[in-house]
Write a structure and sequence with these properties.
single chain, 506 residues, alpha/beta, Nucleotidyltransferase, domain 5, 7-stranded mixed sheet, 40% helix, globular
Length: 506
């Protein structure tokens, strides 16, 4: 009797590295997680040491593979954060730490690209609204600030691509991660060699392009010893974590939105072709190629969603446990006692294109409790989600359903607030980690476990939990959103810009 194959999926995320093993119908049979090792040397800077990332990933895989008969694992693929990658020399050695996706050190390079190429042209070709976080800005920063190391560079690999390389020995990238480099012509699905050449880089630095779910090769003996994976398992191209999550959630057709909730948050809609309206880019929305062949996507980003909660816990709550903070927030009536929070702790969220934006509380008084402040954080992120969704629906108005994924969905209070602020039901996907499941599906495609995406979707058994708006809260949240939250960003923008320029002079 032949045992059912198992599929391994990795999610190398901002906060944690997760390794999960699934049956082909999407049921998790093993999982392990470890904190993502990150270094923060100064404000605005953060980086990952490539070897630390690999060792952390390998350790998580060892824990997961030890929970099953590893000989049954047919495939592995990797989902990861975008906008971060590893620069390699001719001997495949890392030349510099991987600059974190949210690191903003390349602001000067972003400004130069705006003057040299132009934001509208960059958006028209790459689908990206220019920000210092994108790969092209970071490569220019490395070229200008680490010229000796950069001169030795022969390859740039996105994080998922680097881990796949350590697993298989093969170098490639998929279209969804390539879409976050600001060097991909998304309509043609090829490297934008004219833009890359215009800024003094060589397109050969980028890895070969392959669709998500393409077989790269078997797990090497060295990687098998480090991870517990069998050498018979096939490594396939993975993708950007949010896009892999959309595959797992079945958000692969127009009319359905994905709300991907983690350290950062996106509202994601699949497209049959890229949108051409330049105003979309001017509002900070981004487009790219999907992991599903032939599809595209558009999404807005809140760069600090779950990160706002972690900041609050560290800065204002002495790392108090989530259950305590949630209970305190539940004891506070909707509206947080007149306190409102703007969650722009790193960059502004779409539809605002402003890398100098910062967050704020307003309505503080001596009576403000910790519970009220925490509830305000949850409400503020929900208001920001609504602003993002409303702006996005101007371009893709046919919305029938919103599916939410991510660890944040386990916070019932937050999800109830979000549904009430949006005044729309949310379908919460009941899965340990959707990005890992999406990666596992891609691995299964590469190994031939699924003949195609349609067959994989048919085989998956998804469970969702619907959260309806609380009717008694909708009217109050509508007033706060219209009269308080919406005016907050434009009112505070000049103050935040003034503070930035004052500190730049220092």
């Amino acid at each position: 009797m032949i045992s059912e194959p198992l599929l391994a999926g990795l999610d190398v995320g901002t906060t944690n590295v997760k390794a999960l093993i699934f049956t082909p119908d999407g049921h998790p049979v093993a999982q392990a997680s470890a904190p993502t090792p990150v270094h923060v040397p100064q404000p605005g800077w953060a980086y990952y040491e490539p070897e630390e990332l690999w060792q952390t990933t390998a350790a998580a895989l060892r824990q997961a593979t030890a929970q099953v008969d590893a000989r049954r694992i047919a495939s592995v693929a990797v989902a990861s954060m975008g906008e971060a990658g590893v620069l390699l020399d001719a001997h495949n050695r890392a030349l510099y730490p991987a600059i974190a996706w949210y690191d903003t050190r390349a602001q000067a390079q972003s400004d130069w690209l705006e003057q040299t190429i132009g934001k509208d042209r960059l958006f028209a070709v790459t689908g990206l609204s220019l920000q210092p976080i994108f790969g092209l800005c970071k490569l220019l920063w490395l070229k200008q600030n680490e010229p000796e190391r950069f001169a030795q560079a022969v390859r740039f690999l996105n994080i998922a691509d680097y881990i796949a390389f350590r697993l298989s020995g093969e170098q490639a990238t998929d279209y969804s991660l390539a879409s976050r480099t600001m060097a991909l012509d998304i309509a043609r699905r090829q490297w934008a060699s004219d833009i890359v050449a215009a800024v003094g880089l060589n397109a050969d630095l980028y890895a070969p392009l392959l669709p998500g779910g393409t077989r790269l090769g078997p797990v090497t003996a060295e990687a098998a010893a480090a991870t517990g994976l069998p050498t018979s398992a096939q490594v396939a191209t993975g993708g950007h974590d949010h896009v892999c999550g959309s595959l797992a959630a079945g958000v692969i057709s127009p009319g359905v939105a994905l709300n991907s909730l983690g350290t950062a948050e996106t509202i994601f809609i699949s497209l049959e072709k890229p949108l051409a309206d330049a105003n979309l880019g001017r509002q900070g929305f981004t487009q790219g190629a999907h992991v599903v062949g032939g599809l595209y996507y558009v999404f807005g980003s809140m760069y600090t969603s779950g990160a706002c909660v972690e900041w609050f816990r560290a800065a204002l709550a002495d790392h108090r446990d989530y259950a305590t903070l949630i209970a305190e927030a539940e004891a506070v009536p909707p509206g947080s006692g007149g306190i409102c929070f703007l969650p722009h702790l790193q960059l502004a969220s779409s539809p605002h294109d402003d890398p100098l934006a910062r967050g704020a509380f307003i309505g503080l008084s001596t009576g403000a409790s910790r519970g009220a402040l925490f509830r305000a954080v949850l409400e503020g992120t929900a208001f920001d989600s609504r602003a993002m969704l409303e702006a996005l629906l101007a371009y893709a108005p046919d919305l029938r359903r919103i599916t939410a994924i991510g660890g944040v969905t386990r916070n019932a209070l937050w999800m109830q607030i979000k549904a009430s602020v949006l005044n729309r039901p949310l379908d919460l996907m009941q899965v340990s980690d959707a990005a890992s499941l999406g990666a596992a599906i891609l691995g299964g495609l590469g190994a031939g476990v699924y003949p195609d995406v349609a067959a994989a979707q048919h085989m998956l058994r998804r469970e969702t939990l619907r959260v309806e708006p609380a009717a008694a809260q909708v009217s109050l949240y509508e007033q706060i959103y219209q009269q308080v939250f919406q005016p907050m960003y434009p009112a505070l923008r000049p103050l935040h810009h003034a503070l930035y320029h004052i500190h730049q002079k220092d």
